[in-house]
Amino acid sequence: MLTPDLINTSLANELPGKQYVCHEIGEDYVVCRQEIGPEVLRPGELVSGPTQFAMCDGALWYLSFVVLGRIELMAVTSELSIRFLRPAQGTVLWARATLDKPGRRTIVGTVRVWCDEDRDRPVSTAQGTYVVPRS
C-alpha cells in the first residue's frame, strides 16, 4: 500500500535535489509540502514561479502513483499549464493534486497551490496530464 513515507523514501535516491515531499495521499488526491528557503525566493521574498511549477509537476507525478497503485518512475509529464493568481509569500508551500480523469494511459489532474495555512487563498493553480508507459 502506498504511503507518503514509502513515496518519499523510494524517491530519495532518484531525485536527490527535490525540495518538496509527499505529505498526504488519498484515494484521488495527493498533498505535497515544501519548506521555503532563501534559494527559492525572488525579490520581495516571493516564492519563484519555477518552484511552484516543479511542485505542481511533482504532485501530479505522485498522483499518478495513487491512480496506478504503485510507484511508476517512468510515468512522464505530457502537458502542464500553470496560472499564477497572486504573490506567493510564506514559510511553507503546499500543493494539492486532485484527480480529474483516470485513463489506461493518461492521468489528468488539477493542482492548487497555497502558502502556510492559508488554504482558501491559492497562489497558483495548474492542470496537467501524465502518461503511463506501456507494459
Q: What does this 3D model show about the protein?
A:
The protein has 135 residues and is of the alpha+beta class. The chain is 21% helix and 40% strand. It contains two helices and eight strands, in the order H-E-E-E-E-H-E-E-E-E. It has helices at residues 4-11, 49-68; strands spanning 21-25, 29-35, 41-42, 46-47, 76-84, 92-102, 106-115, 124-131. Strand 1 and strand 2 (29-35) form a beta hairpin. The longest helix has 20 residues, at 49-68. The mean pLDDT is 95.
Task: Please write out the topology.
Blueprint: H1 4-11, E1 21-25, E2 29-35, E3 41-42, E4 46-47, H2 49-68, E5 76-84, E6 92-102, E7 106-115, E8 124-131
Antiparallel strand pairs: 1-2, 2-6, 3-4, 5-8, 6-7, 7-8
Question: What can be said about this structure in brief?
Answer:
The chain has 135 residues and is an alpha+beta fold. 21% of the residues lie in helices and 40% in strands.
List keywords for this structure.
135 residues; alpha+beta; two-stranded antiparallel ribbon; 8 strands; 40% strand; globular
Strand content: 35-45%
User: How many β strands by DSSP?
Assistant: 8
Order of helices and strands: HEEEEHEEEE
**Sheet having the most strands:** 6 strands, antiparallel
Strand order across the largest sheet:
1-2-6-7-8-5
Estimated helix fraction: 10-25%
Helix run count: 2
Give the N-terminus to C-terminus distance in angstroms: 21 Å
Overall shape = globular
Radius of gyration: 14 Å
Q: Please tell me the overall pLDDT.
A: 95
Q: Spans with pLDDT under 50 lasting ≥5 residues? A: none
Class based on secondary structure composition and strand pairing: alpha+beta
